[in-house]
Amino acid sequence: MLGSIPFIVGTIALAMAPLAHAQTACGGQLTGNGIYFSVTQTPNFSILTMANNDANINRNESYILYCTDAPPSTLELLPLGYGGSYKNFRIPLAKVMVDDNYTSTYIELVRQRNTITILSNPQNIVSPCLQQGVTNNSITTMTADETQYSLVNATFREDQHPEQPKDIWMPHSVDIHPLARADYVRAVSLFFNQGAAGQTVYDQIAAAYNQHRDNMEGIPGPSKRRIGWIRYDFSTSHWTLRNSNFTRALIEDAGGQPFPLCGTAEDNSMLTTDEVRTLILNSQVLIDQTEYPSTVSPMPHIRQTAFSGFVGPIPVLDNRNVYSLDFSRNFGGSNDYNYRMAARPDLLMKDMIRSQYPAYQPSIGDFTFFNKDYGSSTPQGSVYSAANCSLPDASINNAPYFDEGILPIPVGSVPDVSPAPPPPSGSGIYGGSCSDAGAGKSKSKVGIIVGVIVAATVMAAGFAFAFFKWGKRAKEDRFIELEEEMNNEIPLH
Predict the structure, then answer these.
(1) Half-sphere exposure of residue 89, counting CA atoms within 13 Å on the CB side?
(2) Whether 424 contacts 226, CB under 8 Å
(3) 287 forms bridges with which residues in the sheet?
(4) What is 222-269 written as a DSSP string?
(5) Helix, strand, coil shares of the chain as percentages rounded to 5?
(6) Residue 5 pLDDT more than 60?
(7) What is the pTM (predicted TM-score) of this model?
(8) What angle do CA 330, 336, 337 make, to 5 degrees?
(9) Greatest CA separation found in the chain?
(10) What is the CB neighbour count within 10 angstroms for residue 422?
(11) Residue 124: CB atoms within 10 Å
(12) Tell me, what DSSP letter sits at residue 407?
């Protein structure tokens, strides 16, 4: 699992076409390919291929970004090993439409927010300056009207539209490592000729994330806090488990222990009442990702749906170590987590660690996404509006909203982890029956791989032995045949 191993700062080292005479690359220089994209750069054009990160999508999509008057010819592309069809974009883009608002966070990180002229669902925007753009009508609402394409150079979309030449595919998946999602800032930056800025921003985010992770690496297994991440589905009246590669990696990199404690469970899998009760009773930190209607109070809802008739302490609820993800939001209630989680995993890491160890790194500011007071009559947190665009933002979370807020993280010692959490109780993969797996660890993919290798080795040995026996028998049969042939050819006297 990606979250169980140190994640490399930067990008996968794949070959790039060399730049002639070290001239500036069209799009801005990146240091290499991305985790889920590849790029070939020359002084006059760059070729960007967005790779699939979703098992349900089988195709990639490629773009030629050119800095000259016309895109490169086939003769220019063939020596680089490229052929086929591409979408062509003259860069830098001046006006863009954004269909999935999380993509706008990448654009803002490389300081190109003024290029955004059309947004889908602008009421969900949390960024103060984009809210201001909506207020003063410099940003309009995306509709189904195809004529909006004539107003922009390109459109960033979560879904693929190969037939639309102005659509740029921004693959979205919750089942990849947090830094893999942040890495898309580099791909987006190329469209604005800001590759160097995108590289710098990503390197800073990755360095902060990895320093947080390194600070947590020394926590002994029995001392790790168990972190439950759940969501209530009002359409089915059931609790579900958040267990994607994204959430598991975030918890593990922050020194925590995700559920299930052993075995496997799919992301968004439905939990029985006994399972969610066992999970909550064994959690030291609980993240509730439910989007509650205004008529439902969260804490009473948890007790009513998971603990009806239960008598006894519920430590994580009694101690109020329960967090929603709306500490930062706009006045309409749209939370910043949905908007910015893809671009700023370093802030998520800070919150995840701070929820376990409140005294961790006090110099880097308060929570950004995690809200400990959700559902209270006087909600806490940061509420952003268009008015905040003209402010220095120093009073909000101790850092400005976007690029200037990427802070270097001090090297720190392992936080005080005493007292260690009590052993898990209850049955099943969310409870104490997992204790035989060792410190509550789930059966990892490494163990599965080892098992597969062992089984394969045994099978291979069996096949080898059978082949040896067959070969030996074949040789013996052939020897008998030859002996009979010789006897038939030698005259009898």
Answers:
(1) 31
(2) yes
(3) 229, 323
(4) GGPPEEEEEEEETTTTEEEE---HHHHHHHHHTT-EESPSSS---TTE
(5) 40, 15, 50
(6) no
(7) 0.82
(8) 150
(9) 119
(10) 11
(11) 16
(12) P
Average pLDDT over residues 243-248: 95
Where do we find the tokens 């329960």?
A: 322
- Are residues 195 and 186 in contact, defined by beta-carbon separation less than 8 angstroms? yes
List pLDDT tens digits, range 28-47: 999 999 999 999 999 999 99
Q: Which two tokens stand for residue 365?
A: 């500011």
pLDDT tens digits, one per residue of 87-115: 999 999 999 999 988 899 999 999 899 99
Sole residue written with tokens 């860069």: 91
DSSP bridge pairs for 330: 384
As given in the structure block, the two tokens for residue 5 are 């191993």
Count H helices and E strands in the chain, helices first.
13, 17
Q: Which residues pair with residue 324 across a beta bridge?
A: 371
Helical H runs in 263-367? 273-281, 298-306, 315-318, 336-340, 345-356
CA distance 353 to 396: 20
Structure tokens, 378: 């006087």
Report the phi/psi class of residue 413: left, alpha or beta, with left for phi > 0 and alpha for psi in -120 to 50. Answer: beta
DSSP string, 167-220: EEE----SSS-HHHHHTHHHHHHHTTT-HHHHHHHHHHHHHHHHHHHHHHTT--
For residue 286, the SS3 value is strand
**Conformational region of residue 456, where left means phi above 0, alpha means psi within -120 to 50, and beta covers everything else:** alpha
Greater model confidence, 480 or 142:
142
Determine the length of the chain: 493
